[in-house]
Amino acid sequence: MTKENVFGLFPFLAFPVKICTSSPLQFPLLTGEKINKMDSLRVSALALASFLFLSPVVHSWGVDGHLTICRIAQARLSAAAADAVKKLLPESAENDLGSVCSWADHVKFHYRWSPPLHYIDTPDNLCTYQYDRDCKDENGVKDRCVAGAINNYTSQLLSHGNSASQCNPSSHPIYNYNLTEALLFLSHFMGDIHQVWDDNIIETADERFYDSNVDGLVDALQKNITNEWADQVQKWENCGGNKPTCPDIYASEGIKAACDWAYKGVTEDSVLEDDYFLSRLPIVNLRLAQGGVRLAATLNRIFG
Q1: Where along the sequence do coiled-coil regions lie (predicted)?
Q2: Which of 152, 215, 227, 288 has the fewest other C-beta atoms within 10 Å?
């Protein structure tokens, strides 16, 4: 089984494939693209006003949001995890996970099985998340959601160092994972599952407070992680039961935040003033920080 006969030709990859393939057949039926309560919210912040649109269209943290999460995470890696990540990253990334953290968004229309991996579709009238109820695609295929994707790519990366995962000709094809792509998918999906708004709040914050320099946002969040939120970090990292990752916790937090903050007091076509932006920005910052801390914790558990 080759990449070509599973996905079709994929000539625009900016980096060489390092470790075999990761086809949807090797994917324990995991995919996901829209967190209904999380991703269907589109916020456009312009000057002193923001505009909210409730829409089924999928949006994301944007490049800056995903870059922020991955930069926070990479700075928190153990020596073993940092070494593994460095080896798996494409050379063009120059050991900067953040620079390729939006890769999964760019390949959605070429890896046509992947769009449902970016979201969870929860019932419109509920502010709760249940894996068995909600983690499925539009055809009802279970495990095809962002929580399932995080579980899947975590499992793939746990095979790191296993000869069966490194294109061993004698190994069964089902174990031949592309661990570079697994790393990039996992890193991106960890951002998606922590999303509550799209990138407009982040872009507005960058412009107002950091001179449109995302590094300023990263630095500010890292300082908060070591100071203001220091007593919460261990709880963020902990999954319990020696689990390498716990996306159900992340998704449950996200849907609660969406109901408590993103949608509260808002109707479709509402014009949201500065008070909305300023009151919701701390929640956005918190979710970005949690995503970075948890991505690092997951990678540290995977790679030791």
Answers
A1: none
A2: 227
